Amino acid sequence: MAKIGIPLAVLTGAAFVLGAAVHGELQSAQDQSYWTITRVTMPLAADRDSLRAIMKESAGARAEVRKNGISRYWLFEQAGGSGAQVLVLTRYPSWAAIQDTTLSFTPAIYRRTMPDSAKRLAWIQRWQQLMASMPIERSLWREFAGPDH
User: Fold this and answer.
1) Are 45 and 82 in contact (CB under 8 A)?
2) How do beta strands 84-92 and 34-42 pair?
3) pLDDT, tens only, 30-41
């Protein structure tokens, strides 16, 4: 796999600033959506299967977060080979939704949706073990044109 010459964080920052400059006057801060984009490099196809299994166990937490207006999309690269890239796109309806830590994936939401503390702890340990060995890049984007642009 070839490395891109410009780091993702630089591209992200440039796109964020450009988006803000181009669209700043057209939409107030309260009306804007924000996206976090997380890229995870999974070295083995088996890691994808493990991720899918872990995600099934957290379905209740994901449903709770959706009720708060936060949506998350998981995109798996289909380029073949043993590993893959996974993009996790999370859309927040406002900046306030990012700042309000009770709305997103927090310990309180997991306690409500996974009330059995032993199962919850085992799930958290499996999640951390899976993610600990994988390179992860994160960035924040501001939406400046919707699907109707």
Assistant:
1) yes
2) antiparallel
3) 568 899 998 888
